[in-house]
Amino acid sequence: MHQKTAAEIDEILRRLAARFPDAGCALDFANPFQLLVAVILSAQCTDVRVNAVTKELFKVYAAPADFAFCDRARLEALIYPCGFYKNKAESLISSSRDILEKFGGAVPEDYDSLLSLRGVGRKTANVVSAEAFKRPAIAVDTHVFRVSRRLGLSEGETPERVERDLMRVIPRDRRRDAHHLLIFHGRYRCKSQRPLCGECDLAPYCVYLSTPAKHDLKKRKTPV
């Protein structure tokens, strides 16, 4: 695979920013804890549905202490539309208790501490780091994974490998924006099944067009 030059990456990001000037976090939240809750709920669920659920959820449970000592059945009923509601309820309760008992009631900013919370994998930790604490992190969801491989930014076979490649080739001060731009491109243009290649101005940089079978997204579970 031809390794992208700094100038090529700059042009890819420039074109994406022109196409998606409003690219940003689609989850609604008022503080780091609410973001953590929203990201945990977003696993295998759309941001639109998560926002609809959290709009009502945060009227009942809004802080770590609320979730840590909540009525589990009521919590499960509130988050049921997000799917996997039993596992997600357990993650929310357990992580909230750890936040209270180990981190003084605040979502930890330290990356390894974030990863220690139940229901938090690299993707979730990176989203919280980038959005809540403004760290130069890149979360690799299914869109970022697919688009990064199709554009030749990575040949990684796992989200973690793609993350390492992106952290290496994308300048530190552009990582947070790049994360959102890659998501929007994957969501609205470079779709999994029917990418809109005829409408894409990134064709000069796309390796998918020449070898789609090699660079397409294979079905695999993306960690939270």
The number of distinct structural domains comes to 2
Spatial gap, N to C terminus? 28 Å
Low-confidence stretches: 217-223
Please state the overall shape, judged from the principal axes of the Cα atoms.
elongated
Fourth-tier CATH superfamily name of the largest domain? Hypothetical protein, domain 2
Q: What's the CATH C level of the largest domain?
A: Mainly Alpha
DSSP E strands, number: 0
Number of helices: 12
The name CATH uses for the topology of the largest domain is Endonuclease III, domain 1
The helix fraction, in percent, is 55-70%
Name the average pLDDT.
92
Task: Please summarize the sheet with the most strands.
Answer: none
Structural class: mainly alpha
User: How many whole angstroms does the radius of gyration measure?
Assistant: 18 Å
Order of helices and strands: HHHHHHHHHHHH
Question: Which helices and strands appear, and what pairs or packs with what?
Answer:
Blueprint: H1 6-19, H2 32-41, H3 47-60, H4 64-68, H5 72-79, H6 85-102, H7 111-115, H8 122-133, H9 142-150, H10 159-169, H11 175-188, H12 212-215
Tell me what you see in this structure.
Helix content is 55%, strand content 0%. The protein starts with 5 loop residues before the first helix and ends in a 9-residue tail after the last helix. It has helices at 6-19, 32-41, 47-60, 64-68, 72-79, 85-102, 111-115, 122-133, 142-150, 159-169, 175-188, 212-215. The longest helix has 18 residues, at 85-102. The model is unreliable at 217-223 (pLDDT under 50). It is built from twelve helices and no strands. It folds into two domains: 6-23 and 138-215, Helix-hairpin-Helix base-excision DNA repair enzymes (C-terminal) (Endonuclease Iii, domain 2, Orthogonal Bundle); 32-133, Orthogonal Bundle (Endonuclease III, domain 1), CATH 1.10.340.30.
